[in-house]
Specification:
Length: 192
């Protein structure tokens, strides 16, 4: 089975909506004209009753699998912001750190974006609600329905935000990382 290929002069971005129970992941190809195509969307789940080290290891393994399978050129992670619930913000920060670590392990550049930056990039309004963002993600990617759960749609919004804020041209012309070379080799083997 052939793996999905990035369009010429498009950047492939992995968006990560960090969370301990559900870590949203979304991969998109974004062309220089800002058009986008869905490559992969899903969540990496961990059991809330499991020890923290096991939960973080599951998230890391899930993110590594997405990187190996889809060969992104860059990783965009939601920037952790202050919340009233300290336990929630700690779990989100830990999952965010794992996403940045896994990007570094694969030699991928990584960036963080605040929720309001993502909302503004996707909807044009930094105070948009989650439903507005999710509806725009589905519209931009020409999907029949909004990706579920919300963490998955949020990950796609992060990927789109990053590509649009940084421009597809620079990342698309960057040298290939070891992970991207391995992905291309796997794609060549799959075509034989």
């Amino acid at each position: 089975m052939a793996l999905p290929r990035s369009r010429p002069s498009a950047v492939r971005v992995l968006g990560v909506d960090p969370g301990l129970t559900r870590c949203g992941v979304g991969v998109v190809d974004v062309a220089q004209d800002r058009s986008a195509r869905l490559v992969h969307v899903g969540v990496v789940r961990s059991d809330p009753g499991a020890p923290i080290e096991e939960r973080l290891a599951l998230i890391a393994a899930g993110l590594r699998a997405v990187i190996v399978e889809h060969g992104p050129q860059v990783v965009a992670v939601e920037r952790v912001f202050a919340q009233h619930n300290r336990q929630t913000v700690m779990g989100t920060a830990q999952a965010s750190g794992i996403a940045l670590l896994v990007a570094g392990e694969h030699g991928l550049p990584a960036a963080t974006h605040t929720p309001s930056e993502v909302k503004a990039a996707v909807t044009g309004y930094g105070s948009a609600d989650k439903r507005q963002v999710q509806a725009m993600v589905a519209r931009i990617l020409r999907l029949d329905e909004v990706p579920q759960p919300a963490d998955a749609a949020d990950a796609l919004a992060l990927a789109l935000c990053h590509a649009w804020r940084t421009g597809a041209r620079g990342a698309a012309s960057a040298p290939l990382t070891p992970a991207q070379r391995a992905w291309q080799d796997a794609e060549r083997l799959a075509r034989r």
